[in-house]
Write a structure and sequence with these properties.
Length: about 70
């Protein structure tokens, strides 16, 4: 099973939506709260949710069902 990383923070409605979207696929989701790491917070603060599939990152502007389906094949 493929592992996908979801960079998120608490109270983020978009993050919750992306988590639900990822649950439609047969993937393991590793969630990382950006607020626990100052470097991640600085890097992703304005971009979350961010999904990393292999070495490629998708920010909230490019995450949708069809894009995830294409990249998870």
């Amino acid at each position: 099973m493929q592992t996908v990383v979801l960079y998120r923070k608490n109270g983020c409605a978009l993050c919750d939506e992306v988590r639900a979207l990822l649950s439609l696929f047969s993937v393991e989701v590793a969630e990382i709260d950006i607020e626990t790491d100052p470097e991640l917070h600085e890097k992703y603060f304005l971009e979350i949710p961010v999904v990393r599939i292999n070495e490629e990152e998708l920010d909230y502007r490019s995450i949708d069902y069809f894009e995830l389906q294409k990249r998870l094949q």
